[in-house]
Amino acid sequence: MDFLEPAFMQRALLAAVLVGITAPAVGIYLVQRRQALMGDGIGHVAMTGVGLGFLLNSSPVWTATLVAIAGSVVMELIRAYGKTRGDLALALLFYGGMAGGVMLTSLSTTGSNANLTSYLFGSLSTVSSEDVTAIALLAAFVVLVTVGLRRQLFAVSQDEEFARVTGLPVRLLNLLVAITAAVTVTVAMRVVGLLLVSALMVVPVAAAQQLTRSFKATFVLAVLIGTGVTLSGTITSYYQDVPPGATIVLLAIGVFIALAVLATPLARRRARTAERASAECDARCVPDTRRPADDVRV
Amino acid sequence: MNDDPVISVRGATAALGARPVLRGVDLTVGRGEVVALLGANGSGKSTAVRAVIGQVPLTGGSIELFGTDRKRFRDWARIGYVPQRTTAASGVPATVREVVASGRLARRRFGWATRADRAAVQRAMELVGLADRAKDAVTALSGGQHQRVLIARALASEPDLLIMDEPMAGVDLGSQEILAATLREQVAGGTSVLLVLHELGPLEPLIDRAVVLRDGCVVHDGPPPKAVGQHALPGHDHVHPHAADEPLRTGLLS
Fold first, then answer.
1. Degrees to nearest 5, angle at CA A18 with A13 and A19
2. What is the mean pLDDT of each successive set of 10 residues along chain A, which is 298 residues long?
3. How many distinct structural domains can be found in chain B?
4. CATH architecture designation of domain A2-284
5. pTM for this one?
6. Which residues of B are less than 8 Å from A209 in CB distance?
7. Which residues lie below 8 Å from residue B57, measured CB to CB, with a gap of 6+?
8. Given CB atoms, is B56 within the 8 Å cutoff of chain A?
9. Chain-centre distance of CA A186, in angstroms?
């Protein structure tokens, strides 16, 4: 357990746990509404925020948070109101965000593109105690929203039109999901990096649903997988000289493959059970009188 | 029965883009009444229903729900809406119970689910005969069972008015019978129903009145037309598409 000794590792592990919890907790709603790549888009936009932080000589975590929130709100508005060419608008936002980040960083005196790289791919060993405080505060917000409003967010992500007719404030809840996703991106930025953030939002959810049947079980298992891979990836990168972000994402994909292989016989058995159940039901409910009359000319 | 209508649409006009879809539609559903909205594809049935629940803006005319102007109507728990869907599934697994429970949010939008909420969800699943599948993933269900899940979700808020958009589309006979029985039970309990149908089918004995739309106008409002020809056959499943300007030949008016 000597990886617990250095102070930087304690901070790194704390940040890793918080990311492992929050990223899948938000990601599950994005996957549910089939917006799995939204996290990736926010990550690109957040680069401008990091560059702005260098330029203004302030903490890049907070500027990235603000810019990512602004970007995610614009993306949500494009999704909700944009009828055509929404994909082009999003593309402009993504690439503009990335180019803006590189440009602002090179203009600043404190930041270099090497510094920017630590935000792109994560750099656990440079996580400061101020970073940890920021990450913990942001993670608390994410958990509060994704767990506290899970019934409402489930309904909105499951069937948006139906949710509107139940009287839920759908527009507000959609914006809240977008903002929470943006906050999560900046929480995860120091651990896995902006370019790999989306993987940690999506892959644990995809892995969990290989085994689960309910939303609740998917949520819990995805968070467990997320925490497991961020912790083990961080520890691996301490002993071996490998980048933590890439290690964590590859571990998550490994878990996905393992569970997918494991799930194949399970799915087959479930399909058989379902087939039996529906066969029984048909025999019980279809009355003879409703057989189509085949002898009538059509 | 029409003194105190639950739905009252007067001269409604609406357009999708530049194309007028509703051109002065009058539609009334009285308390306890079952009204079928019929017509060919593109006649404006779905748009009319979506205007009633506030999902399509009107360009003219008025809509009242339970005597309140639709724009000021907030009592959504009184309405159970069944959208036109072929699936109840989304990108993440969910059980039948979880999907049905989301309908209960119309009663209690925020806060924890109470024992009464759970009982209502259980009752809704029993009504459509899916209580034994409560813990199954919706992806494991057949098309007809998906439709039953969507109807149970609408029933979970214990509504006074059911609005259904093509609840029988793509539904196997076994599920059609169960849906008809569910609806009969609701109507017997005093629920009003507005449903979009391609044809009357097994629901025919339940229907008090039929409103037939054609090109965004009401062309018939009265007793359900007698089905004749091939459409009268039990088990006839009407799935072939109609062009909007094709003469109305759903077998309902001939």
1. 95
2. 84 92 95 88 92 87 92 87 71 89 86 78 82 90 95 94 92 93 89 89 95 95 96 92 90 96 81 65 44 40
3. 1
4. Orthogonal Bundle (1.10)
5. 0.85
6. 92-93
7. B14, B51
8. no
9. 12
